[in-house]
Design brief:
The chain contains eleven helices and ten strands. The protein has 382 residues and is an alpha+beta fold.
């Protein structure tokens, strides 16, 4: 392998993913955004192409691809339709805790359904007063014989109401602080679960986001995921890996906007010549392209560490998510500027990409939190 050049296998994988995304997802991306509801068509397309849950090991019916291939899959889908890429990132959030902390029985129970497309997963950790401060959560799980009983509210839950299974984090030992949180697998048809109305969002409108309410929700004791009191560790370990996917999502959005802008400036004429001939426009394109490629390389470096379970994954996962999402916001904003008045309309899609890009700076840890994570890693005592 030549350093910094990916083997041809990855290029072939990208080409296959791009073909599906360009031919089947891109043409209805605007409609998905306009309808502002979960797209069953996009889900069926991704399942048929085997792109809905990349990275599930082969022994559980998955494709077994590494984290780099999974990142490429998310990137290519997000380039065409960012809302559709949340199907992949939602599954990643649900699958990763099972791989990190689940028993073999739990993995055999749930992962094959996700791999086949029979089940979509959700990840329920955030609450109204516990976003960045995860340890402040108030959702409770109380042991009762051979069951756990959940009560509380989870907020900003992607795929809520659509997902068949949810990874839910709740307080099991109120006096134990951060060591009093545990993780559970909850079924959407368990008694005591209800959902709020879909959030009216700025972007990613084709990804449903709701509150989830637990009221005397009783689940079997064997749905505890990992050890009691180790839920926060499971959550943070999961995010180390899944932030790579958010970074890939951001890179895809940015690449999509760059592609549209590059094509447009070569066609749009002012003062008798294409605006691509103007140096100011060329400089903007060059800066946009540098940001996209820099972000891509950081995401791929983080993906390699995810596959290797490297000790510096926490730093690289945070850096990839932060750099890529900042790049996506900058690049999509510049794309709107390059298209001028047309960029401000829905005709070319870059305004949608700009709206979609914003959330990548916020979810799975705001970029302010990512900078704190990176700084703490840098300042650790050797």
């Amino acid at each position: 392998m030549t350093p910094y050049l990916l083997p041809p296998l990855y290029a072939e994988f990208r080409a296959a993913a791009r073909e599906v995304a360009t031919r089947k997802l891109a043409p209805r991306a605007a409609e998905v955004d306009e309808r502002a509801e979960f797209s069953d068509e996009s889900y069926a397309t991704l399942v048929a192409a085997g792109l809905h849950a990349p990275g599930i090991p082969e022994e559980y019916g998955g494709d077994g691809v590494d984290a780099l291939s999974a990142a490429i899959a998310v990137e290519e889908v997000a380039r065409a339709c960012a809302s559709s890429s949340t199907i992949q990132t939602s599954n990643k959030l649900g699958v990763t805790p099972l791989l990190l902390a689940g028993t073999e029985r739990q993995r055999q129970r749930y992962l094959p359904e996700v791999a086949s497309g029979e089940a979509l997963m959700a990840y329920a950790i955030s609450e109204r007063e516990a976003g960045s401060d995860v340890a402040a959560m108030r959702c409770r799980a109380v042991a009762d014989g051979d069951s756990w009983v959940l009560d509380g509210v989870k907020t900003w839950i992607t795929s809520a109401g659509v997902a068949k299974y949810l990874i839910v984090f709740a307080v099991t030992d109120p006096d134990a602080g951060s060591r009093g949180i545990s993780a559970f697998v909850v079924h959407a048809d368990d008694g005591g679960i209800s959902y709020g109305e879909p959030e009216r969002k700025m972007g990613l409108k084709g990804s449903v986001t709701r509150e989830v309410y637990f009221e005397n929700c009783r689940i079997p004791a064997d749905r505890l995921l990992g050890e009691r009191g180790r839920g926060l560790s499971v959550a943070l370990g999961t995010l180390d890996h899944t932030r790579v996917s958010v970074g890939a999502q951001a890179v895809g959005i940015a690449q999509g906007a760059l592609d549209v802008a590059t094509a447009y400036v070569q066609e749009r004429k002012q003062f008798g010549q294409p605006i691509s001939s103007f140096q100011g426009v060329q400089f903007m394109l060059a800066d946009m392209a540098m940001k996209v490629e820099s972000a891509r390389q950081m995401v791929y470096a983080a993906a390699a560490r995810s596959t290797a379970k490297a000790p510096d994954l926490t730093y690289f996962g945070a850096a990839a998510k932060c750099l890529a999402s900042d790049a996506a916001m900058s690049v999509t904003t510049d794309a709107v500027q390059l298209l001028g008045g047309y960029g401000y309309t829905k005709d070319f899609g870059v305004e949608r990409m700009m709206r979609d890009a914003k959330i990548t700076q916020i979810y799975e840890g705001t970029n302010q939190i990512q900078r704190m994570v990176m700084a703490r890693q840098l300042l650790r005592t050797p």
